[in-house]
Amino acid sequence: MFRIALRNLLYDRMRMVAALTGVAFSVVLVTFQVGLFHRFIRGASAIIDEARAPLWITSPQVTNFEYGSLLDEKIYTQVLAIPGVGRAERLASLFAQVRLPSGAKEGIQVIGIDILKRPSIPWAFTAGSMDELRAPEAVTIDDTDFEKLGRPRLGEYLEINNRRARVVAVTHGHRSFITSPLFFMTLENAVRFMDRLQPGAFTYLLVTPEPGTPLEDVKAGLRRIPGIDVLEGRELAARSRSYWIFRTGAGFAIGLSAVLGFVVGMVIVGQTIYSSTMDRLKEFGTLKAIGADNGHLYRLIGIQALLYAVGGYILGMGASVGVAHLAAHLGSPIIISTPLVVAMFFITSAMCVLSSALSIARVVRLEPGMVFKS
């Protein structure tokens, strides 16, 4: 049965190449969109996930990390007074403009960190270190934003909101979800650059309970403070992802593209297998006439579909890896994980098998006696 299916495919090689190209294109499109979606949802909560704080104090009804409101210094004092609170780390997130050495301006996201608490973010440096940020005017940039920022060097000066800033460290993998370059700095330096940020104010408070203290007890104590929300890190991360996926329409657009890729593959393979089946109706009729039942023909057509799936998958996944490398080089990485690679094989197989349904339906109605007709 396998040999017959393979010979059917090789009989018209141009048709086979066209079908394999269609399947490969579909694999690339679906893999690209799913990988892009994976990066999308990971980026939506990257800072929250990397901070690994059990509890986050936020302004009421905050929907995502990027657009939190400032909280007063007294909140910080009240939190420290709650029994069971072992650590409270302030973090400020605001938007600003940076003037580059070329004179051009670029929108950026300023992240002020409580450096006295030895913060967990930023989490990866390629040059400089956390200690370098203690200096006045000190800021970091990320290597993924080099081109956008005019490739500044260590020690070079920029202007943030018309105030001088010095690049003292370079981070890696801290790409802003909304494409505005991330500039990490101490809270004190953030106050210097941001008129809205008063000394002691912050956007988020990252809370860690004392060892042995139940998280729920600390959460209950914190919720008695008025004017704030108390969320577990995973809850805030889920809110951020949900906001960007469902409330902006971006997630729907990416998902729709993936579905369209699947449909394109089904149409191309379905049309190819159906056309091949129609060209060989007499051969199928002969098989029925010599005793082959419908089950044999189903398997024959199904094997053809799976051969298209395997060939198209190999070509498409190879092309997808190439596209991912190119996208990473251009600053828009796509996450192609091992589970995605495995899942795409089964998705491609399902796509090709489903697309053979029309051919199967036609063969079922085939009369063996047709082989005796002129």
Biggest sheet architecture: 10 strands, mixed
Strand content: 15-25%
Give the % helix: 40-55%
- Cα radius of gyration in angstroms: 29 Å
List the uncertain runs. Answer: none
Helical segment tally? 12
Order of helical and strand elements: HHHEHEEEEEEEHEHEHHHHHH
How many domains, as an integer? 2
Number of strands: 10
Mean pLDDT: 82
Descriptive overview:
By secondary structure, the protein is of the alpha+beta class. The protein has two domains: 2-43 and 249-372, no CATH class; 72-227, no CATH class. It has twelve helices and ten strands. Helix 2 packs across helix 11 (338-355), helix 8 packs across helix 11 and helix 10 runs antiparallel to helix 12 (357-364). The model has no long low-confidence stretch (mean pLDDT 82).
Task: Annotate the secondary structure layout.
Elements: H1 2-11, H2 13-44, H3 46-51, E1 55-58, H4 73-80, E2 85-99, E3 105-113, E4 125-127, E5 138-142, E6 157-160, E7 163-171, E8 182-186, H5 187-193, E9 204-209, H6 215-222, E10 229-232, H7 233-247, H8 250-279, H9 281-289, H10 294-329, H11 338-355, H12 357-364
Helix pairs in contact: 1-10, 2-7, 2-8, 2-10, 2-11, 8-11, 8-12, 10-11, 10-12
